[in-house]
Amino acid sequence: MLHPIFSVLVSKPELVIQHVAGYAALVREEASSVGLEIAKRAIAWGVTLFAGLVFLVLAGVAAMIGAVHEFHWMLVIVPAIALAIAVAGFLVARQPLPEKAFAELKAQLDADAQALRAVRARS
Fold this sequence. Notes:
Transmembrane segments: 42-65, 71-93
Helix content: over 70%
Keywords: Membrane, Transmembrane, Transmembrane helix
Shape: rod-shaped
Protein name: Phage holin family protein
Strand content: under 5%
């Protein structure tokens, strides 16, 4: 005797196609929300690295200007702005991913597995 899944596959393939399409839509929906978080982090890391390099360059220039001329408060403020941007980017980049990433997909897979076990137990 064939497993009930095979009989459904043969007799009603459109149900299986609809089920697989539902999974694809669920994966696409959840991946887009997580994908936005990953893209946000990648941009934040880029901003952090760029602002860090700008800070190093401006701090070096400020040190050279400070050595040649008299000290001015702008020699500290301008590199500090780049450093503040780097720190802000770092804080955004280090935020954890949402814990509920793909939780709905995992729940749906568990429900389908449980339904298959119930069908197998009946036959």
